[in-house]
Design a protein that fits this description.
Elements: H1 5-8, E1 13-16, E2 25-26, H2 29-36, E3 44-49, E4 54-62, E5 65-68, H3 72-79, E6 86-93, E7 96-103, E8 106-107
Length: about 110
C-alpha cells in the first residue's frame, strides 16, 4: 500500500507541557501505533520548526510506551519552550515531525 501525503500527516498530536516534559516526553500510544505499528518505533526522529531549525531526538521505550528522550531537552532549551507551553507535532513522514509551539499563548 502506498502512503499518500494526507495519510502521512496523520495523526498529528498535541501536548500542554508539564515540568517532566522538559526532560522526557511521552508520545500518545494511539499516535505511535498509527505511525509505526504496535510496540514499534524508530530509534530517533527529526524535529523541524517553522524557522528551519532541525533537531535529532532519540526515542526510548518503557512498559509499551514511547518517549522523546535524548535530544528533547535540547529542543526545549534552544526554542525557549517552557512549562505550560502548548506543542503540536505534525508528521512529515515516518521519522520527521514539524513542531509548532505556543509560549504564553503566542505562536512562536
Amino acid at each position: 500500500m502506498t502512503e499518500t501525503s494526507s495519510s502521512i500527516r496523520e495523526p498529528s498530536f498535541c501536548r500542554h507541557l508539564n515540568r517532566a516534559d522538559e526532560f522526557i516526553m511521552a508520545l500518545p500510544s494511539d499516535a505511535t501505533t498509527k505511525l509505526w505499528g504496535v510496540y514499534k518505533a524508530p530509534t530517533n526522529v527529526l524535529i523541524e520548526t517553522d524557522d528551519g531549525r532541525k533537531f535529532i531526538v532519540y526515542i526510548s521505550e518503557a512498559k509499551g510506551m514511547f518517549f522523546l528522550f535524548n535530544g528533547w531537552s535540547d529542543v526545549i532549551t534552544h526554542l525557549g519552550i517552557i512549562f505550560g507551553s502548548f506543542v503540536i507535532f505534525t508528521p512529515l513522514d515516518s521519522t520527521r515531525f514539524k513542531l509548532t509551539y505556543f509560549v504564553n499563548g503566542l505562536l512562536i
